[in-house]
Amino acid sequence: MLANARTYGCLGETDACARQIGAAEDAFTQASRDQPGWVGNLANPARLYAITGHAMADLAEHTGEKAHREQAIQRLSKAADEFDPTTHARAHALCLTRLATLLVLNGDLAGEEQPRWRNERLPQGVSVRSGRLGPMDQAWQADEPITGNPTK
Fold first, then answer.
1. CA dihedral 18, 130, 74, 68 (to 10 degrees)
2. For the whole model, what pTM was predicted?
3. Alpha-carbon distance 79 to 95, whole Å?
4. Which spans in the chain are helix H?
5. Are 49 and 64 in contact (CB under 8 A)?
């Protein structure tokens, strides 16, 4: 269900992606942390927000729809707020990285927001070493403003 949501998002299948996200949210209402595997992971609201946020971000990248970006931003913001960076550093950093990209694309990470992100939010991920984060750790320490399309 969760992998399907991301897959449908990457394919630009809006209705199928939304159905899978809805199914994940339904499973969340019935999930318990005592359950094995992905069902137990869904009992963590941060995980649910992260997974569905990444699915919406994938969909937004494919469709270019601002409404899809807005939903991804909302979900990933909640995930970043819910994840404890000391116990879920990588997941937290991945959410912040994707969130920053979406905010730049949306035109929301400009002016007075840039220093706050550069000084408060993004440094939390600098100590995380992951191939999926790639060169972003150097970008977080740059003094230059964030401009352009970071996905190209």
1. -40
2. 0.75
3. 7
4. 2-11, 14-30, 37-42, 45-63, 66-82, 89-106, 113-116, 136-139
5. no
Q: Are 56 and 68 in contact (CB under 8 A)?
A: yes
Kindly state the DSSP code that residue 125 receives in the 8-state scheme. Answer: G
The domain spans of the chain are: 2-139
- Please, are residues 107 and 149 in contact by the beta-carbon 8 Å criterion? no
Spatial distance between the Cα atoms of 148 and 115, rounded to a whole number of angstroms: 17
How far apart CA 112 and CA 100 sit, in angstroms, is 14
> pLDDT 10s digit of each residue in the chain, 152 long?
667 898 999 999 999 999 999 998 888 887 676 766 666 666 788 989 999 999 999 999 999 999 999 999 999 999 999 998 888 888 888 898 898 888 888 887 766 666 666 666 665 555 565 565 554 444 444 455 545 544 44
- Side chain identity at residue 35, one-letter code: Q
